[in-house]
Amino acid sequence: xxAPRRRIPVKPGYFTVPDDPATPPKLLGSRCDVCGExxxxxxxxxxxxxxxxxxxxxxxxxPRGTLWSYTFVHFPLFGSSRLEHIGYGVGQVDLPEGPRVQxxxxxxxxxxxxxxxxxxxxxxxxxxxxxxxxxxxxxxVGAAR
Amino acid sequence: MRNVAVLGVGxxxxxxxxxxxxxxxxxEAGQAALRDAGLSFRDVQAAFVGHIFAPVMSGVRVMxxxxxxxxxxxxIENASATGSAAFREACWAVESGxxxxxxxxxxxxMTAMIQESSANTDxxxxxxxxxxxxxxxxxxxxxxxERGMKPEHLAKIAAKNWNNGALNPMSQRRPGxxxxxxxxxxxxxxxxxxxxxxxxxxxxxxxxxxxxRPELARKKNPGRPVVRVTASHLGSEIYAPGHLFVGPVVGxxxxxxxxxxxxxxxxxxxxxxxxxVQVHDxxxxxxxxxxxxxxxxxxxxxxxxxxxxxxxxxxxxxVSTDGGLIARGHPGGPTGLAQIWETTLQLRGEAGKRxxxxxxxxxxxxxxxxxVCVIHILQRD
Lengths: 145, 381
Known about the structure:
The structure holds 2 protein chains of 2 kinds.
Chain A: E1 6-9, E2 27-32, E3 38-39, E4 56-61, E5 64-73, E6 88-94, E7 100-105, E8 117-128, E9 131-140
Parallel strand pairs in A: 1-9
Antiparallel strand pairs in A: 2-3, 2-4, 5-6, 5-8, 6-7, 8-9
Chain B: E1 5-15, H1 22-37, E2 46-50, H2 58-63, E3 73-76, H3 82-95, E4 101-109, H4 110-117, H5 132-147, H6 151-165, H7 181-186, E5 189-191, E6 194-195, E7 204-212, H8 214-220, E8 227-236, H9 254-267, E9 276-278, H10 284-293, H11 302-308, E10 318-319, H12 324-327, H13 335-348, E11 361-368, E12 372-380
Parallel strand pairs in B: 2-3, 2-4, 9-10, 9-11
Antiparallel strand pairs in B: 1-7, 1-8, 4-7, 5-6, 8-12, 11-12
């Protein structure tokens, strides 16, 4: 099977889909122009009660982060048609810019431990002709693909 | 809150009821509450109705089962905290002097909702692809990392709740024999370390409370203890670094801490005064965390307290006395009102085999979508 030529995000507005499959995706967020707080996903106002500014700038965050917590789910990933997703890891990942995000993890339960470094990657939920519907997930740095 | 009593409570047992409509279940729960209050629907001056999943105007339609009397009817929705939020609005409607007698009704058929949503194959959001249990499992993994919690502590909480549910005629899960923590731990894995028996079921049901002036309680049921609502709190999230915006979230721990502080101040009681507590135990890890966040034990001491049996029916403070969400069930709209039903019966001394001895003060806590927190304190006069 040849790799699909085109990749589209399962939901637009959350992560980049680089043209080069070897380039990791980045998460799409916002930075408050007044206090500098970073957010995921994008937002138009600062959420801090002390700030509440309505001036934010779009930023790209990641692709690396630190694992805050994890689990392994023993049910199929909703919306996926792939056997690999019949069970899947989920992590809360702290991005260096500040935000904590919850996303699927690549690997088995024993591959994960709190505090480890991860990198974002795109993973196909399903393929339709030459198009793959992709989501963003994290993989332990150094783990085989 | 100084002038509000629970006049009556009623329930339709939670469970899977394919042949009963929301109207059928609601009428049964509502008429039971009115009978319990010694009132008729003619006495009801306003109604607050809570449902999550049923279509627009379902609350008003369901209320027609009781009769068309022209009263104001208002739907309230706040995810899992729907019934609790509706109860709060009814209590304030009485406390403010607007009404003497208000009905609060909650209903839902979560089984029908699950069938409809599973027909939709694409996740509507980035994280809708992930099973909700996963987000609570992440909380449990972090607790293992920080405090050395073991999965058996979660299993002990769930076993307690299953066994309490066995004593409650309105509980969805009523095991025929005593459930051991080993059995809970050995049930199928949902999202590590949470097993199926540590998770609440989906279900259908209805619950109702009639609230009003304490004088009405004394007049209609002379000699019966009056159960008053002495504190009510509804709060939402305060932003802090690390906040999660996407997907079903557990919510900042601070929401429960702030809510508890508020209700203890309002009622003039502390956590040591509580005889019984109901919490949002959709998953066992939640109940463990709420022990500490509500001040039932000190931070870091939940595991030791569980091992001592502090939260059993006969323990220091009984938690999830009716089985909690894990056993009694969690259909959605009526869940928070089931907590009021249980606490009211306990404070009157009418809880049968699961009666907490000499119960005088009870607390009911619910989370909605990890984004709102509702807490009430009920006290026997």
